[in-house]
Amino acid sequence: MRLILPLSITFITGMIMVLHFFVPHQPIKLLGDNLQEWYMIVASAAIFLGALNLMHVHFRKIKLKLKNWKYSPVTIIGFSVMFVTGLIYGVTEARPFDFLFMNMVAPMASTMFSLLAFFVASAAFRAFRASNWRATLLLTSAFIVMLGQVPIGAMIWDKIPLAKVWLMTIPNTAGQRAVMIGAAMGVVSTSLRMIFGIERSYLGGTD
Amino acid sequence: MRNLSAVIAVLLLSLAGFALADNTDPPESVLQNVGLAHEVCRIADLQASDIPNDEGGSVKLSWILESEGIRPDSLEIMRRDPAGSEELITTLPANITDYSDDSVRNGATYSYWILSYLGGVAEACSDEVQAVASAQWLYSGRIGMLIILTLIMAVIIYYIESGKRGKELYIREIAGLAAVDDAVGRATEMGRPVLYVPGIMDMDNIQTIASIVILGRVARKTAEYGSPLLVPTSRSVVMSVAQEVVKEGYLQAGRSDTFNRENIQYLTDDQFGYAAGVDGIMVREKPAAIFLLGCFYAESLILAETGRSVGAIQIAGTAMPSQIPFFIAACDYTLIGEELFAASAYLSREPKLLGSLKGQDAGKLFFLILIVAGVVAASIGDFWSPMKSVAEFLRKLVTVN
Do the chains contact at B237 and A202, CB–CB below 8 Å? Predict the structure, then answer.
């Protein structure tokens, strides 16, 4: 029963969702729409589970003075301030929650995002070493694309921006589509394995 | 004065001529009530049709408002049902040009016309049009994909059955998956934890599901080797599922006593907040092995570069084409697209799962043939028209609307 029940639920819901994509008729449409709504409800309810887990982990760290416990009060205070502010004043514009979000959360997120520029530089430095012919090809392509992206590229030679466009639209698109087709086949295959109960490891490895 | 009278007479005769020439008369009931003042814009080109690809019970109306004349205040959409009773179904502002009537019966003929109102008086009336609503069993734009999917499913099921029967199936080596044991072993030797990041999307994303399947295998390995496994998640549902999967992995390895639920924790739903949290874990805990498997966006390189900076062996995998180059540049091994979905079968070596991989490859071969045929047909079609229709057929077959 421990195995049959989840496998049955997976099969029935999976088949309904597959049919929902192809059949606009009732009762498939109603069932499919309802299942999607149920997922939203379950996912929304699970947010409380996540918040509880977050608080539990950090309170436990403080209580037991575990490694790096000194960071936990920051998380708890940050969470509590945002939660209480949102609860009391609401989350609409020009409210304290909005002020905190726009002046603390958003700048911190932007800071993280801007780190990407430095990480791209360090990753590119490693990736573009001309160690073999394939890496040299990559280096040359990247050089043309970067040069074609900035005005100096066209000033050096007016064909460089055209070469950049060709590289991006032909070889790059072809490669991306190949990955996408392969991934799509993987999605179909994985979904079938799940729906027909061939893949059971997500149930805890009872395969 | 005589000339002016003549002009007026000619104009009146012309108008009468136009009125007689208009063979689509508005309904009689409307004509009795409406004072036809020609200066108010009339609804022109009223179209009524069944809404395609739906469960029925709906008719789509569309129209244009005549450009010349005074703009009406509002429009009233009138309907006559098969029994002959007329009713007002809605009143709309004059700037609206379409409406969907969702209260009709399938198979019954309904008539529609629209009245233009100015100052509370119906000043003009459109022509009357008819429509019959019907239900469709299949989306017309998805039939080709249904055929292709059925074929692929049949091939995959065939190979799964072949695998079950014990047929030897060759699967090429995937370096990233072959390195899983080494990565966990390295973490054990160094006495450091293993960090598993299942992406930033929820459980409704197939990449997250594939990642959770791999997590089960990695959890079993870490339990066998006795290394701590840290799984920070950005979704609550993923956290709950990951906790259960890791717990089962430890149970199967006979090491349930070492399972620590707190190691699988929720951080935040926020993309860069999550990246900051995971980076913090990497810097503080200094894991020896990092798995970045699932759906990633802009945070992929932030995570991979931080992981590299702490000296961890990194195995990444995603089906997001735009993030794969970042992982290739920053990680030791990268599972590209389909390899992420093949991981479970590869790691378990189960014949049934390997069979599904072969089926997947056969599906790819099918698409390859389809692409080549399409390219050839489209290229030759420019010179020889019959091939153009072949190319068009193939294009329709693979297009999903």
Answer: no
- For residue range B45-67, list pLDDT tens digits in order: 899 999 988 888 899 999 988 87
pLDDT higher than threshold 90 for residue A110: yes
The complex's ipTM?
A: 0.88
Per-residue confidence (pLDDT) for residue A165, from 0 to 100: 95
Mutation choice for A interface testing from B151, B211, B236 by most A CBs within 10 A: B236
pTM of the full structure: 0.81
Query: What pLDDT shows up at residue A106?
Result: 94
How far apart, in Å, are the Cα atoms of A42 and each of A39, A46, B203, B237, B264?
5, 6, 11, 8, 20
Among all residues of chain B, which has the CA nearest to that of A75? B267
Contact status of B158 with chain A (Cβ, < 8 Å): no
Q: Find all residues with CB under 8 Å of A121, minimum gap 6, and list them.
A: none
Chain A segment 141-200 residues within 8 A of B by beta carbon are 175-176, 179-183, 185-194, 196, 198-199
Q: Which residues of chain B have pLDDT under 70?
A: 1-38
Chain region(s) in chain B for CATH 2.60.40.10: 23-132
- Residues of chain B neighbouring A205 (CB-CB closer than 8 A): 216-217, 220, 245, 248-249, 252
Mean pLDDT of A33-58: 90
Total CB pairs under 8 A between chain A and B: 213
Chain B residues whose beta carbon lies within 8 Å of the beta carbon of residue A25: 55-56, 135-137
* Pairwise CB contact (< 8 Å): A109 & B202: no
Contact with chain B for residue A39, Cβ under 8 A:
yes
Task: Give the chain A residue nearest B320 (alpha carbons).
Answer: A180
**Nearest-CA distance A182 → chain B (Å):** 5
CATH of range B23-132; options 1.10.3720.10, 3.40.50.150, 2.60.40.10, 3.90.78.10: 2.60.40.10
The answer to whether B245 faces chain A, any CB pair under 8 Å, is yes
pLDDT at B15: 43
Domain range B180-331, CATH class? alpha beta
Q: Where in chain B is the domain with CATH 3.40.50?
A: 180-331
Q: With pLDDT > 90 as the criterion, what percentage of chain A qualifies?
A: 59
